[in-house]
Amino acid sequence: xxxxxxxxxxxxxxxxxxxxxxxxxxxxxxxxxxxxxxxxxxxxxxxxxxxxxxxxxxxxxxxxxxxxxxxxxxxxxxxxxxxxxxxxxxxxxxxxxxxxxxxxxxxxxxxxxxxxxxxxxxxxxxxxxxxxxxxxxxxxxxxxxxxxxxxxxxxxxxxxxxxxxxxxxxxxxxxxxxxxxxxxxxxxxxxxxxxxxxxxxxxxxxxxxxxxxxxxxxxxxxxxxxxxxxxxxxxxxxxxxxxxxxxxxxxxxxxxxxxxxxxxxxxxxxxxxxxxxxxxxxxxxxxxxxxxxxxxxxxxxxxxxxxxxxxxxxxxxxxxxxxxxxxxxxxxxxxxxxxxxxxxxxxxxxxxxxxxxxxxxxxxxxxxxxxxxxxxxxxxxxxxxxxxxxxxxxxxxxxxxxxxxxxxxxxxxxxxxxxxxxxxxxxxxxxxxxxxxxxxxxxxxxxxxxxxxxxxxxxxxxxxxxxxxxxxxxxxxxxxxxxxxxxxxxxxxxxxxxxxxxxxxxxxxxxxxxxxxxxxxxxxxxxxxxxxxxxxxxxxxxxxxxxxxxxxxxxxxxxxxxxxxxxxxxxxxxxxxxxxxxxxxxxxxxxxxxx
Length: 595
Hints:
By secondary structure, the protein is an alpha+beta fold.
C-alpha cells in the first residue's frame, strides 16, 4: 500500500515562511503533480483495454476467415439437424463373381423432397415437376403442397439430368437428399441369385439399403457390417459362363415352346455353382412386385432351379442303379427281366418302347427301361432306398446360400410302399429341384463323396461323407457315357468333351386336384463332362416343352433338353478352361464284363 503525499507538507511550509515565500505555491505544485499521476494511470489502463480488445477482434476475424475458407473448399450439402437417433448406415459392400467382376455395387444419387411452407408458387412448381416426372399428377401435387404438411417426399431416386431440371425450376421449397442406391450393372444376369435390394429406414440425408431376396437377403448383415471394411462378397458364379448359359437356355426355351426353364452348372469336387439360370427372369434394378394371385411359378421372381419342385422322371434311375451296384446286387452285365407291363397294386408300369424280354443292367439305363429299373429297385426295397436318397440330399432341403432354399422341402410319398419304391426308382412319386439333382449327380460321379452345393467361391474343400465306392462311381459314369453314345441322349454328344448323362421325361402333375396332364411334361437332362474325368455336372429342366418341327409334337427329353445341354457345353467348356481332347481308348470294357 503506497503512502499519499500531503498537499501542504509541514516541513516545506515552515522553510518557505522562513525564506519569506508563499506556502500556497507548494500546495498548487503538489496538486499538479497528483493530477499528472492520475492521468498517467488512466491512460495506461485505457491502453491495456484497447490492446486486449484489439487482440480479441483479430482472433475473431481470423476464425471467421478460416471457416469461410473451409466452406469455400468443401462440397455443397444441405444443412440438417442432428438428433439423438442412431445414424443410418447407407454403405453396402459389393458383390463380385469368382473372377472379381462386379455383380452388385452402389451408385450415388439423390432423392427429391419438398418443404411446402418454403414454396413461393406451389401451383407452378407442381406443373413444372409433372414435366420432369410424367408419372406424377398435377392435382395431387398441388393438394400436397397447399395442405398442412411441412414435408413431402416426391421421388426417392432421381437421375442427374432430372436433378438439373428440378434445379432449373428454382423454387426454394424443393430440396435434394443424398442417396446410395443398389446397382446391378449386368441387368437380368444372375437375377435370381442376387435377388435384389430396397430402401429400409430413410432420412433426408441418407437411407439404408436392405436385401429382399437371394444372396442380398441371405448375407444382408455381412454386406452392411462396417466391421468388414467394405470387403466384397465373392460368389462362385462365373459371369461369362452365366451369360453364355442364359443366352442358350433362353433360345432353347423359345425354340422348344417351353413355359419355363432352369439350368445349373456345378463343380463336382467343390460343389461350387458356376452358373444358375431360371427363366423367365427379371431385372433386379427394377424388381417387380410379387404376385397376389395365381401360381407362384407364374411370377418371374420364382427361382425354378431352387424353388421348383418337379417329378423329374428317369434322371432318378441313375440313383437306383448306383445303389444296386454299390450294394453288390447287380453288375453292369447282369440280365434284367423287362417283360411287361409290370403290375403292382392295380398300377401298370410300362416302357416307352418295346425293348424285348431282357436287357443288361447297363442297357436298362441306356434304353431307360422303367420295368427294368423297377425290377432292380425290388432288390433293395423302400427303407434302404429312402436312406440312400437321403445321403444324396434328395430328402431334405438344400443348404445352398439362398434365403428361398431353406423353405423348399422335397415332396415325398406319405406311405413309402413297394409301389412307391418302384416309381421313385424312375422319378415318379418324389419331387425335387434341379439344384438338388445337380448336387446328387455330382456326388455319384466325383468318386462317390457327397458335395454340398454352394454359391460362395471355395479355396479348399475337404471331401464329404462317402455315398458310394470309387469303383461304383467309375462304373456308373461309364454307363452314363453310354447313354449319350448309343442311348436316349444321342443328341448330347459334343466332340472333344465326352459327355455322359441321363434323360428324364415325366408327366407333369396337376397343380390342383391331383393326377397328371396328358399332354404336358417336365423334361430334364442331367449331364456330366468330361465323362472319363468328371469335372462338371450340368442339369437343364424344361417346363411343358414341345418340339414341333415334325408331323407330331415330340415331348421327350432327348428331343428337347438334350440339344440345349449340348450347345451349352459346346459354348461354356472353353470358358471353363477345358480343351477338347480325344477320349481315351478302352473306357468301355468295364461295361461288358462282370466285376
